Amino acid sequence: MSCVRLCQVKLLDRDAHAEYNSLVHKDRSDILQDTDSLGQRIRDGLLLDVYGNLITEKQRLACEMVLLQDLSLSEAAESLKVSRQGVHDLITRAREHMENAEKALGFLEKGSKYEEILRLLEEHKKQLPEDFYKNIKKLLEA
Asked: pLDDT digits over 36-67, tens only?
């Protein structure tokens, strides 16, 4: 069975690969709203990348182990020297904190809009005056 590597950590089987491909071809803003397991996994990774420094070291480690490295709660608990419930609580609090930060700051949403603007700019490049295109591109890359 062929596999694909998601987020450089999670190996997926053929069915999950099809689901991943459908997500990749979705608008990123749709992924940011997604609540299914793969969409949530992608969102968790993005939240951790953007807001990982706002949570405690132990919360960050628990999230990385369980959400990114796909370790079980038991494996993470053994490594962190806490109970499985402790790992679950760490992840729950970390997610809540990162979601609150996203609601307040909106970096993921703004990043999604920025990518959409760049995509549209490239898509309509030939229809735009060259100096306008260059000025907008320069502003976006600054």
From this structure: 678 888 899 999 999 999 999 999 999 999 99
Domain residue ranges in the chain: 4-105, 106-142
Print the SS3 string covering the chain: CCCEEECCCEEECHHHHHHHHHHHCCCHHHHHHCCCHHHHHHHHHHHHHHHHHHCCHHHHHHHHHHHHCCCCHHHHHHHHCCCHHHHHHHHHHHHHHHHHHHHHHCHHHHHHHHHHHHHHHHHCHHHCCHHHHHHHHHHHHC
The predicted-structure confidence for 96-133, as pLDDT tens digits, reads as follows: 999 999 999 999 999 889 999 999 999 999 999 999 99
* pLDDT beyond 50 at 7: no
Is it true that domain 4-105 has CATH number 1.10.10.10? yes
